[in-house]
């Protein structure tokens, strides 16, 4: 419930009074339990974020036990699935929006929490991808992981944008379709051989 | 200058008083010129956003005149270049952060402006991609355009995330490198043939 208030208004705009009203408790109760607005925000982020990160880790370990040799698409799908599943529940969906806006919140709030929650599982996935893509240098895989996180967060946190651009031809609320499209796109992006940009293209740079 | 205030604190958190102080003008002057905080926000978004959108359109038309047959990578590079260039100037960089958080701002502020500024040029690019990728259905190209916008906005609006995940092995502030990595990744994502997910992978879905 508080997820929705933070997701909609951001940290600065969120109001403990509104959160209390919607939850049917006084601000005093919220202060008693969480200390401050920042405390409540952290609690929510840690709770929901850890659920995604733990699920990612558990699923990857299970997949590794089941099969000797994984494909890039299997790894990518396993990474995406917990976030897509969370998106199906309204409070979960609000958390996804919250997560998408973390990188635009003041740094002191966002960076530490995000690192705490996601860094270990994300690096596990980069390591798993490095095993099946030994020809791709690790620094490039990190770039590609960041692109992939950006791609999925943007797509699932704002279905409107796809509606607008496609004028209704594509629907981001069809989560099975969205997941399939993401797996194919991310899989290709992770797997493509590294190449230098052609001299012709470089000539187009403005500086 | 006002870009930085909005980018840092979001619409709700931004203060006309602070913006006025930094610009050395009174709040009354700001109110006189822009009507309200929302008016100032719109003005900034329209000004900077249009600069990117216009540059994208101009460059695509120029490229089409120069060559008969374009590659996916050339189209993608032309799309990305104006945003990467804007990122090199501090107020421009603040606008990129602002743009990245648009999809998490209250809808009434964000959606209309964004549509007004970016829809035409973005559809022009999808059309150009559809020409060189006739085998990819248009609805899938729209999905891939949204993934691509998410990937580049996330990567250029928050260099910290790459530092954290890669533990310093990759540097998003090397803009030439970032652009090359983006072009390769997005190029592959746009071009990959459409395929259904394998039945085995579908079995892993939790619902």
Question: What does this molecule look like?
Answer:
2 copies of one chain form a homodimer. Helix content of chain A is 78%, strand content 0%. The first copy, chain A, is mainly α. In chain A, α1 (2-13) packs parallel to α6 (90-102). The radius of gyration of chain A is 19 Å and the shape is globular. Mean pLDDT of chain A is 85; it is low at 199-207.
- Biggest sheet architecture of chain A: none
Oligomeric state of the chains present here: homodimer
* Coarse shape of chain A: globular
Largest interface, per-chain counts? A-B, 84 and 84 residues
CATH class placement of chain A: Mainly Alpha
| Category from helices, strands and their pairing of chain A | mainly alpha
The overall pLDDT average of chain A reads: 85
State the main characteristics.
homodimer, mainly alpha, Tetracycline Repressor, domain 2, disordered C terminus
Please outline what is shown here:
The structure is a homodimer of 207-residue chains. The first copy, chain A, contains eleven helices and no strands.
Write the layout of secondary structure elements.
Two copies of one chain form a homodimer.
Chain A: H1 2-13, H2 16-23, H3 27-34, H4 37-66, H5 72-87, H6 90-102, H7 107-132, H8 138-157, H9 159-166, H10 175-191, H11 199-202
């Amino acid at each position: 419930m508080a997820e929705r208030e933070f997701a909609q208004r951001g940290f600065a705009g969120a109001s403990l009074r509104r959160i209390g009203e919607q939850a049917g408790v006084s601000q005093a109760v919220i202060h008693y339990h969480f200390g401050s607005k920042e405390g409540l925000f952290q609690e929510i982020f840690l709770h929901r974020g850890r659920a995604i990160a733990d699920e990612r880790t558990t699923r990857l370990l299970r997949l590794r036990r089941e099969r000797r040799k994984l494909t890039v698409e299997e790894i990518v799908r396993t990474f995406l699935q917990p976030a897509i599943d969370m998106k199906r529940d309204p409070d979960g969906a609000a958390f996804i929006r919250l997560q998408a806006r973390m990188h635009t919140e003041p740094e002191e709030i966002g960076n530490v929490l995000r690192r705490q929650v996601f860094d270990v599982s994300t690096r596990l996935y980069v390591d798993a991808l490095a095993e099946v893509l030994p020809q791709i240098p690790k620094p490039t895989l990190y770039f590609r992981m960041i692109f992939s996180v950006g791609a999925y967060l943007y797509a699932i946190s704002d279905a409107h944008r796809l509606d607008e651009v496609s004028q209704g031809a594509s629907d981001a609320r069809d989560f099975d379709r969205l997941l399939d499209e993401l797996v194919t796109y991310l899989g290709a992006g992770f797997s493509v051989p590294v190449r230098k940009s052609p001299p012709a293209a470089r000539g187009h740079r403005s500086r």
